[in-house]
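User: Sequence for 2-isopropylmalate synthase below. Tokens please.
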Amino acid sequence: MLENGEQTLWPAMIRPAAGTVPETQPWWNPQQPSAMPFARYRRDWPTVEVPDRTWPAQRQTTAPLWCSVDLRDGNQALPKPMDQQRKLVLFNLLVEMGFKEVEVGYPSASQTEFDFVRHLITHDLIPDDVTISVFTPARPELIERTMDSVRGAKTAMIHLCAATAPLWRRVVFDIDQQAVLEMTIGSAVQVLRLADSMPTTRMRFQYSPEVFNLTEPEFALRVCNAVTETWSASADRPVTINLPTTVEASTPDVFADQVEWMHRRLERRDAVILSLHPHNDRGTAVATAELGLAAGADRVEGCLFGNGERTGNVCLATMALNLFSVGVDPQLDLSDIDSVRRTVEECTQIPVSLRHPYAGDYVYTAFSGTHQDAINKGLRAIQDVAAHAEQDAGTVPWDVPYLPIDPKDVGRNYESVIRVNSQSGKGGVAYVLASQYGLQLPRGLQVELSRLVQAHADIEGDELTSKDVWELFAREFMHRRDPLRLVDVGSVMTVATPSGAELCMLDEQTVPNLLARLENLGCPVTVKEQSSHVADGGARPRIAAYTHVEAGGRCAWGAALNASETTAAVEALLSAINRAAAVEVGATAWFDALDRRPVALEGP
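Assistant: Structure tokens for 2-isopropylmalate synthase:
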């Protein structure tokens, strides 16, 4: 926290190290033991032996079946749960994106939840190819209320959930394994009986052994098999068995082993849609889901941008675009990620992080000079490949350093890919002028400009916009009209000294004539580098010219933009000479000789 320009600390809570460096650590690791009570958290999670595991070698080549739980699991985690209008907006977005399974609510939790499900059904708002899911704990009165909510739906899935982990059995419910099994089977029977009373609805069933990842594997398997038997799971009427990491407690590889163990042992496996529901308590929900799919799962539940209890559910947008980034069709439309994000933010009233994968404001942005240079070169290479193949750049294989996907494929543009601050280098500065103003600066000019930009950013302590960079470039390299300048003499442009003496008329030979004239007057100028190109920025094409000179013992660059190639070349030369010759800003000592000698326009 900063106050009045001075640093002050929050109340001191940092405790000193609790000991010396352990002898077991290598010499290059000087870290000392912390005072944090880490020994409290030694927890053994259930593990399974899968010595011939196959998941490490698997690669995802197809999208899983996605199920959004934004309207249930995500909604119940909001400080202010969504009202019907916001839920409807989000439901429509999910459908438009391509979700075919959407968990729309927890009908027994509140009247609002119940009414929303009824609204979707009674107003015929559910497309025929979309299955709505409703969640219910394994309690008779809640199951009955839940079943009432979907009456009249064309297709609906009842999601039955019962916690199976030992800590929950002991602390939350005070029951043993047998009681959990009997409760679950009884609930499954009730669901089936009530479903039979609704013959016009195509009813599907889902069961989640809540906290599966902390449940004894043999017990979880026993319960799941009992449920699929009760519901008579078959290939033409499959049951979804959903394995939640209700509280993420282990590394993703441990969960992958648990999933593969279940995948191999589930009875009626061809009649089971094996689903995952990862939470993000350890920050590895995406990895957990991806390895779980490699281990045999078919389906993933989660929320757009990872909303959910505590640290949230797995982010389905990230998972889908991870597939996209390796050439797999995600079967969800995220081509306008900013609109999707804005809608979700509006509905949930929770902002998406600036650094959120694929969707955050900064995720396609580089401030670092080395990153900017690599991105700039990569984007130019893509353009070169496209031009050589006579294809649109948006159709050639994407291979740009630091950018896993083309921002344009998710509705972004390149304007914010490179942003300039004191950490930026020549590549970033050059990219800004190229992308926004069509200028292809020579490397030496990039270096000189980047030094000025960094100095300016250091003084200001803030990011420079593309306009800031342009104004700095123009002021320093393009608009240096002292001491030499172009002036109008009737209908003719001439190069003039500070006193107005004319050195050279403007024509195709102006540059060599001017250089010769300066040489004869004792003010020699050496042109070290010259280049020009058509600038594609702006409403009309112009010529961009760049000149590097040595004059008065100093080297400098100049630049110009003009509709006339000749005028642009002369203006760039004059800017370079004026910059090199100035001892300090505004000084003209080097050109004093020009105004003390007679000057004629005829010949050099």
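The domain at 485-596 is CATH 3.30.160.270 (Double Stranded RNA Binding Domain).
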